[in-house]
Amino acid sequence: MMMSGFFRFGVWQNFFRAWKSGYSGNLEGEGFTLGGVYVIGAGRQGVLLEHREKEFGDKVSLPSVLEAAEKIEPEAS
């Protein structure tokens, strides 16, 4: 995303939302890598949840993470 990410309206919305809620962070690192969240089940269950950031500050829904985690079945030994 590099510079184009800096000028996106959604990025600034996410920044102000985080700032208003008190998040400060350490602002260290390269700052150009988008993240993601995966919930992976045991054995052949595979990926139960995949969330990739589309722009900086794009958060995963906590209820969807918890719902996916509840679907994990222990692997039989």
Automatic annotation (TrEMBL):
Pfam families: AhpC-TSA_2 (PF13911). One of its GO terms (cellular component) is cytoplasm. GO terms for molecular function: antioxidant activity. InterPro entries: PXL2A/B/C (IPR032801). The keyword DNA-binding does not apply. Its main location: cytoplasm. The keyword Cytoplasm applies. It comes from the Eukaryota. This is Peroxiredoxin-like 2A. The gene is Fam213a_1.
